[in-house]
Amino acid sequence: MIPTQHLRIHQYAALQPGPKLIVTGAVHGNEIHGSVAMAEIMKQLDGGELTLLRGVLTLVPIVNPLAHTLNRREGDRNLNRNLRPPIVPQDYEDRIARQLCPLLAAHDGLLDLHSFQSQGQAFAMVGPRNNSGELEPFAHEAVESAVVARLGVGRIVEGWLSTYAEGIRRRQARASGGSRKAQLVTDPHYGVGTTEYMRSTGGWAITLECGQHLDPEGPSVARLAILRTLVHLGMLAPDAVEAFQPATPLEMLRLYDVIDRESMDDQFAREWKSFDPITKGELIGTRGSGEKVLAPSSGRIVFPNVKSQPGTEWFYLARESDRKLGWGDAE
Q1: What are φ and ψ of residue 206, in 5° steps?
Q2: Considering the entire predicted model, what is its pTM?
Q3: Distance between CA atoms of residues 14 and 52, nearest Å
Q4: Protein fold of 254-320
Q5: CATH architecture for the domain at 10-249
Q6: CB 316: neighbour CB atoms within 10 A?
Q7: Which one of 79, 112, 181, 266 has the largest count of C-beta atoms within 10 Å of its C-beta?
Q8: What are the Cα distances from residue 33, in Å, to 30, 112, 154, 210, 251?
């Protein structure tokens, strides 16, 4: 059994200065592709099969030990929402955040490894374009674009925090009750997870969704992504892993809405998979009240979750993005 009262943090410091990269897994306890991949990479580093050339590499294979031990997404709550250093910790995830947030802030970049509930292919998520706005000011679009283009996946998604902000506004409009859960899911900070927090400290961050939770190829997807990131940053020799050169242009999508489940009686019209195409007016599901939930425009459905709880995300909507990714240089 994994001890739940401490975090295991593995750090490799090269003798030459360079970037500081942190890689995290099992932020959601049952998402372990990254954890398996990191165990193999640590074995290779410890055995001399891989050599860190410069910089600092920090690996945290299991960020949420309680959720991992319970083999579920959360311990007391979703660690990857409303992430910030707590003034007074109120639950297990707050206590993890107290250690995790300063650890993230001590690094230049983050590769956060996840998996998802429904069937589908691996994909990655990037932050906003460079901007000086209030929601998520950012200045590292180039490095995120360069890293994500090399990970080995053919689909990239943007628009997370702006989509969440709109969803939160709707939640606030219908909120009732004063429970801690109700307060958390209607907090404007609720869309902030590991990558968003990392960007708020001045760093860059990529989320890699390595496939369905039980996909046997997931650990390989995670391992190759870690190695390719390290090679791009000049932290490993170029021959450490085969480079990824997409044969076709990467598919770039933008999230534009998140739809909450209102009742456990809300049901999908069919067994959706992430990134299934939808057409405007198509039936996505039916509320317990009988109200039909129709696609507002053509695009894709993302993260359809038959296990979501009332008041939390049921599915997301995405459409084609005009963003272009460049290969860039290491930072």
Answers
A1: -125, 135
A2: 0.90
A3: 6
A4: OB fold (Dihydrolipoamide Acetyltransferase, E2P) (2.40.50)
A5: 3-Layer(aba) Sandwich (3.40)
A6: 23
A7: 79
A8: 9, 11, 18, 7, 23
Identity (one letter) of the amino acid at 163? T
Question: For the residues 14-32, what does the mean pLDDT come to?
Answer: 98
- DSSP-derived 3-state class of residue 115: strand
pLDDT > 90: percent of the chain: 77
Cα dihedral value 88, 89, 90, 92, nearest 10: 180
pLDDT value of position 197: 97
> For the chain, what percentages of helix, strand and coil (3-state, to nearest 5) are there?
30, 20, 50
The domains of the chain are located at 10-249, 254-320
Task: Please enumerate in sequence order all residues whose Cβ is within 8 A of that of 198, keeping only pairs 6 or more positions apart, or say none.
Answer: 104, 105, 107, 109, 110, 204, 205
Burial class (CB in 10 A: 0-12, 13-18, 19+), 213: middle
Helix orientation angle between 218-232 and 33-47, rounded to the nearest 10 degrees: 50
The pLDDT of 11-38, averaged and rounded, is: 98
Amino acid at 194: T
- C-alpha dist (Å) from residue 193 to 18, 22, 64, 247: 26, 15, 13, 32
In this prediction, residue 162 carries a pLDDT of 86
Confidence of residue 246 (pLDDT cuts 50, 70, 90): low
Residue type at position 255:
L
Confidence of residue 177 (pLDDT cuts 50, 70, 90): low
Q: How far is CA 185 from CA 70, 132, 177, 297, 326, in A?
A: 22, 26, 12, 26, 35
User: Does 222 have pLDDT greater than 80?
Assistant: yes
Between 184 and 94, residue with greater pLDDT: 94
Please give the distance of CA 300 from its chain centroid, rounded to a whole number. 18
Residues 157, 323: Cα–Cα separation, whole Å = 10
